[in-house]
Amino acid sequence: MSAIEVLALEKSYGELKAVDGISFSVTKGEVFSLLGPNGAGKTTTIEVLEGLRQRDAGQVKVLGDDPWTKGYDLHKKLGIIPQGFTFFPKSTPREAVIYYATLFGVKVDPDEILKKVILEDASKIWFENLSGGQKQKLGLALALVNKPDLLFLDEPTTGLDPQARRNMWEVIRGLEKEGHTIMLTTHYLEEAEVLSDRVAIMNHGKIIIDGTPKEISEKFGSGERLEVRGDEKLADHVRQKTGLEVSYDKGLVSVRLRDKSEAVSALSSIDQSGLPWSDLRTRQDSLEDIFVRLVGGTIEEEGTFSQASGAGPQDKGTRAKEER
Amino acid sequence: MASFNRVIADLKVFVRGYTRNKVGLFFSLVFPIILILLFGAIFAGGGGPVNVYVQNQDGGLASTMFLKYLNNNSTTTVTLVANGQDFSQFLLAHSANQGVFIPENFTNEYISHQSVNVTVYSNPADTSSPIVVETVGSIISQMNLQGAQVMYHVGVQQDNIKSQSYKYIDFLIPGLIGFSVLTSPMFSLVNISSEYKKTKLFKQLSLTPLTKTEWLTSKIIWYVVLGMISFVIMTQVGAALFGAHLDYALMIIPFLIIGPLFFVSLGMLVGTISKSVESAAVVGNLITFPMMFLSGTFFPVSQMPMYLQNVAHVLPLFYMIDGLNQAMIYNNFGQALFDVEVLAVLSVIVFVLAVVFFKWRED
Ligand SMILES: Nc1ncnc2c1ncn2[C@@H]1O[C@H](COP(=O)(O)OP(=O)(O)OP(=O)(O)O)[C@@H](O)[C@H]1O
Ligand SMILES: [Mg+2]
């Protein structure tokens, strides 16, 4: 049975079509990621599903109900972290959990919930003094208070450092194992790949691709890539000599191979360039490559492109931006 | 469907936040006391009767009688000025704000029923001057009646009913109670409601079973409690330090409940219909400041020019402060009841508007 059904959903802000006729469904027990750059329409979509925004057109069913008209009752069955979760600055996580429990009229052990999201050490710190990661975890803790059937997590790890992000993944994976249905949005390809059963890539209000990470790779991936460390001149050289699709990012020259024979010509052009190079390797085209190709590299947060390198400092930048 | 538990839970979180924020506490509890101390000290200084300089060029029977009246009452005392002096020069030299001049032929003219004037010098900027003008006026009219040999039907009781205790501080305390019942919920709610809208906290709360009315109710409860606490503190401080004479009538209670209800709702309404935190603050100030000064907070409305009095009568805070004055000073419960009714009607209207315009979620 479907937890979420969306058919031809549209939502505009004045002239701007933020969501432009998207359709998808999420089955129970599944983790579904909406992946896209800033302004793609992810939050708008998820807020329509949460009953916070009224749609202009299309059909939406969440746990069998229309979220806009049945919102008040539906919310008792949903757990939600809104984008940029905040709470009363002078409340502690423990008080926050008790507050939510009373609002929902449920009995919970606040310490148990805080432990589940790995926040027990900060249970008595005022919200305004929590770190970004701890704040997000409190958001998750509150989303869990009412033992929801369905979780909406809007960018649960944006602004967190790599360590805190992995920490959050850990928690979300734990919830997956318990069989929660989760819909999340993210800018991070790695996150979508690691966490979700299915991914929809969204841009300019439209879903461009939809499927399991593996399906997407097979369908839209080009297969293999040949990569060497080198400079931008090398990338230009290979592109000119072979006519192949070559990308360059932070000292990494990456050649897309449509055919095994192309590997030979790529390698020989690298060799003939006379430029320094090192660390030859080949790898499978990842979701990231597809994403960059499809979305056209219009993501503001460049750090999200490269998985291992550069994530740290980039993250700091993002965080500072969000804190104004 | 309102749930008592949810209101209490929300109240708890709000009160914790409130009391943990030292600045907020300062403004709601300490600031009014500072105002009492300040204004009390400024105006309570001349506590006793007002000193009036008198130059009596007459010395006859009528002027002696006049001076006796002017000296033997609770509001004024007389200091005689030697006849050789230029009286207005003297007043200037002594920085005196009030003086009375009795002309040479006063008694003769009075006895022969000719019209004659005493001159009252006064300073409109001085709060004591009206007292002197009024006292002189009433003595003169008494003398006129006697001079005309009219039989007394209505006498003036020299016992001074209660007016003896009408000191500035007596008006100041109810005024400042009104002031704090206005300012702390208004400033706070205008800010909270626009801020929560901006940070999306309202949106988050809308995802819980808490309703708008429950949320607003918990704020009202808190500001009623806070209002009562500051009521007790302020009346005690006023009585202890400045000897304010105030009656603790039951009639005060409806004001302490309806007042916060009104201003919490008004603050909410302003914050909720404003587009940004900044514009909310501007609109809030535009509403709050005139009300703060023109509603009888720092001085009785009756001392203001007529057109400003008319303005005061459309300000809700006027009814709050007038009601408190009527209940605590004059024991005029009929008027207080009228004031409370006006406030109650306004409160219901503003509360309903606030709930209607207050949006958890956008479309
Ligand atoms: N309340 C609003 N009024 C007007 N335009 C809006 C509003 N909310 C969003 N938009 C616009 O709609 C588009 C989609 O916004 P949305 O927040 O859904 O994007 P998103 O995919 O969540 O982006 P991000 O990754 O930055 O959170 C953006 O261009 C945004 O500027
Ligand atoms: Mg978003």
Notes on the structure:
- The complex is a heterodimer of chains A (324) and B (363).
- Chain A has 324 residues and is of the alpha/beta class.
- Chain A is built from twelve helices and 13 strands.
- Chain A has a six-stranded mixed sheet with strand order 5-6-7-3-8-9, with helices on both faces.
- The longest helix of chain A is centred in the middle third of the chain and has 16 residues, at 162-177.
- Mean pLDDT of chain A is 84; it is low at 297-324.
- Chain B has 363 residues and is mainly α.
- Chain B has two domains: 4-43 and 167-357, no CATH class; 50-154, abc type-2 transporter like fold (3-Layer(aba) Sandwich), CATH 3.40.1710.10.
- Chain B is 66% helix and 6% strand.
- In chain B, strands 2-1-3-4 form a four-stranded mixed sheet, sandwiched between helices.
- In chain B, helix 1 (4-20) crosses helix 9 (212-242), helix 7 (168-198) packs antiparallel against helix 9 (212-242) and helix 10 runs antiparallel to helix 11.
- The interface between A and B is medium-sized, with 30 and 26 residues.
- The site of magnesium ion has 5 residues of chain A, from helix 1.
* Order of secondary-structure elements of chain B: HHEHEHEHEHHHHHHHHH
Strand order of the largest sheet of chain B: 2-1-3-4
Mean pLDDT of chain B: 85
* Known CATH architecture of the domain at 2-77 and 149-219 in chain A: 3-Layer(aba) Sandwich
Helix content of chain B: 55-70%
State which percent range the strand residues of chain A make up: 25-35%
Largest interface: A-B, 30 and 26 residues
Provide the number of structural domains of chain B: 2
Order of helices and strands of chain A: EEEHEHEHHHEHEHEEHEHEEHEHH
N-end to C-end Cα span of chain B? 24 Å
Total E-strand runs of chain A: 13
Radius of gyration of chain B: 27 Å
What's the quaternary structure here?
heterodimer
Poorly predicted runs of 5 or more residues of chain B: 152-164
